[in-house]
Amino acid sequence: MRGIEVVASGLATTIQDIGRIKYQSAGFPSSGAIDHQAHCLANALVNNEENAATIEYCLMGPTLKFTMQTFIALTGGTVQPQLNSHIVPMNQAVPVHSGDVLKIGNLKHGRFGYLAVAGGGIQVPEVLGSKSTTLRIELGGFKGRTLEEGDLLPTCDVYTMPSLASRKVSVETNNTTQIRFVKGPQWNLFSEQAQHKFMVQTYHISNQADRMGYRLRGKAIEVSQSNMLSEGTVLGNVQITRDGSPIVLLADRQTTGGYPVIATVIAADLGKLIQFSNQMAFNFVLTDIETAVKELKQQIKKIQDLRKLWQQKRYMEPIGPARKAALKIGKLF
Amino acid sequence: MELKKIESIIKLFGNSKLTRLKVKDGESEIILENKIFTGKNIVSSAASTSASPHNDLTAVKEKKDQEVISAPLVGTFYTAEAPGKSPFVQPGEKVKTGQTVGIIEAMKMMNEVKAKKDGIVEKVLVADGTAVEFDQPLFQLKD
Questions:
Q1: How many angstroms away from the CA of A106 is the closest CA of chain B?
Q2: Is A58 in contact with B111 (Cβ distance < 8 A)?
Q3: For residue B65, what are the CA distances in angstroms to A23, B69, B117?
Q4: What positions does the domain Carboxyltransferase occupy (chain A) (predicted)?
Q5: Same domain, B107 and B86
Q6: Chain A residues within 8 A of B108 when measuring between CB atoms
Q7: Looking at the predicted structure, is the pLDDT value of residue A276 above 80?
Q8: Based on the domain organization, do B94 and B55 belong to the same domain?
Q9: Is CATH 3.10.300.10 correct for A178-287?
């Protein structure tokens, strides 16, 4: 079988797409890429649908051997990937050939990175409409688990890539330390002092952080000790636990929760938050639902515009590898 | 002493290869010491006391590349498998390539730190339970 062979697994490397969003009512966590935007950008760079399965790695990237020809793109946390010992850039479509070895290496900044593979991504079977891995319940992805040395990931051969030369975007360095939120469903259950405290103090991400959620370090928020009925959770919900510390619920979050939700981080800012290091101090800023929607739409549009641009440029010089036969003929002379 | 004069002394000292400079001017006295240099010197002097300072420095640099086990990722460093258990390695112990010498906890996952070459642990550079940065030296080895 042809595909991608795992030479070294890296840390918590999994197959992810945009998530198993339709089965949360039945108790299945949605999962999917924790940095949704980075995943979508990686797919756009290699001309995939946004829902194509990518390889997500955490802190330590895997080493992979390709046994087919295709195009790849790396996004998310900063790495210095090497293809056959030559450094390849991030955020750019790169051709790979059979026998090539890609060493992604350790993340210098950020926590999660993505590798997209052209031709519709990693061809693992869909489970409940998604190729995402949910480790906790061993569901989906590659056998419901993290990748291991020796695994062979099925992918398709790809010979052509329209406007290959322009398929790159600059690596953004985001220095903002403000994370915007909209009021959560239990916002009014908190005293004015508690609300104020939540907005003025600086937070750090604690060691208690994984794909399910990030517990934050900061001064305790006074919380009402009265019980509430469990409610459905939403991506980016900020729960306040009994001891007053916030937990931001992320991709692998439980589907219901009983802690009061003070805030919901806006989708456009979640990618920033999940990539913060433990040392990064940040604070929460209140915004409204209109801004939240506008910001997310802008983010989506940015990638859509890139797709359009690459589509338009496909007949402009330099024309990317456009026909398989032409490549073979080119090699002859 | 005037501030400007002190400033120029610091500049001169910074550009020189001196490790320590003492200037006495009437009542006031200023002592400048290059700690980084001395720090390295201490490490290397343990290995060899006879070599000249310049040679010592290069020796340490080589040492750093070859005989240090660094953190493969950001996280919390532990010297033992669990609290209360004895550490994986102690100074003076032999380690072999691929041997687990410590653990780094990151994102709730425990990652073993492994020796990249054979050697003897000279020094554990980081205390148990401290937060470490990517590529931070954890162990000093000797042949």
A1: 7
A2: no
A3: 51, 9, 12
A4: 25-302
A5: yes
A6: 207-210
A7: yes
A8: no
A9: no
Structural domain including B84 reads 68-142
In terms of CA atoms, which chain A residue is nearest residue B106?
A: A207
The domain spans of chain A are: 3-173+304-328, 178-287
Select from B107, B109, B116, B132 the residue whose CB has the most chain A CBs within 10 Å, as the one to mutate to test that interface.
Answer: B107
pLDDT digits (tens, 9 = 90+) for A314-326: 888 888 787 888 7
Could you tell me the mean pLDDT of each successive run of 10 residues in chain B, 143 residues long?
79 78 78 58 37 44 67 91 90 93 90 91 92 91 85
Same domain, B92 and B121: yes
State pTM to two decimals. Answer: 0.81
Would you state the pLDDT for residue B48?
A: 37
How many A×B Cβ pairs under 8 Å? 38
Contact (CB<8Å) A111/B107:
yes
Q: Write the residue in A106, A108, A210 that is nearest to B107 by C-beta.
A: A210
Contact B134 A210 (CB under 8 A): no
Q: Are residues B83 and B135 in the same domain?
A: yes
Those residues of chain B whose CB sits closer than 8 Å to some CB in chain A are: 72-76, 105-109, 111, 131, 134
CB contact under 8 A, B131 and A278: yes
Q: Indicate the residue of B74, B76, B131 with minimum beta-carbon distance to A59.
A: B74
Would the CB atoms of B108 and A59 count as touching at under 8 Å? no
The chain A residue lying nearest B111, using CA atoms, is A11
Q: Which of B41, B63, B85 is the last residue of a domain?
A: B63
Query: B72 with B57, same domain?
Result: no
Q: Are residues B89 and B118 in the same domain?
A: yes
User: Last residue of a domain, which of B37, B63, B89?
Assistant: B63
Out of A214-218, A254-258, B22-26, least confident range: B22-26
Number of domains in chain B: 2
